[in-house]
Write a structure and sequence with these properties.
Elements: H1 5-41, E1 46-49, H2 56-62, E2 72-75, H3 86-93, H4 98-105, E3 112-116, H5 123-134, E4 139-142, H6 145-148
Parallel strand pairs: 1-2, 1-3, 3-4
Length: 149
């Protein structure tokens, strides 16, 4: 079956982006994999947070999947969920100090923390990363540098 011109363009664009990410971020991806493997080896959790809006999807994707990795703590704070109100989610993800309280509420004290966000510059992203550092929890950021610029 032949693909349409638009389907081929989409496929080629996605493949190109994935190849570019692999080339540019190989060392970071390997380091992140090592941190997660070490956490699992030490019987610790991989915490994942998408601090606001659609970023929560990243936490959902890693959590409770058939055949997936078991020691995942999805940090799904009701204040940041779109289902609780999009405007509310936006306000909360921009509120300084909220992220530290969320890590406390979800008992993040060891393991590794993955922060998923399209641009990585809102207050909650910064707060959870700084609070994780203060707690000695290694942090992995999954974001788009290009989108942030």
């Amino acid at each position: 079956m032949l693909m349409s011109e638009h389907t081929e363009f989409y496929r080629d664009t996605v493949i190109g982006l994935l190849q570019e990410i692999e080339e540019k971020e190989r060392a970071s991806i390997d380091k992140a994999a090592d941190l997660m493997a070490q956490a699992v080896k030490e019987d610790k959790l991989i915490h994942v947070i998408g601090p606001g809006g659609h970023s929560n999807i990243g936490a959902y994707e890693l959590f409770y999947r058939a055949g997936g990795l078991v020691p995942v703590n999805a940090i799904l704070d009701p204040g940041t969920l779109l289902s609780m109100g999009a405007r509310r989610s936006t306000i909360i993800e921009r509120t300084p100090g909220y992220g530290a309280a969320v890590l406390e509420a979800f008992n993040v004290k060891d393991g590794v923390l993955i922060v998923v966000n399209a641009y990585g510059i809102n207050a909650m992203c910064i707060d959870v990363a700084l609070e994780a550092r203060r707690r000695g929890v290694p942090t992995i950021g999954v974001t788009s540098k290009a989108f942030a610029e």
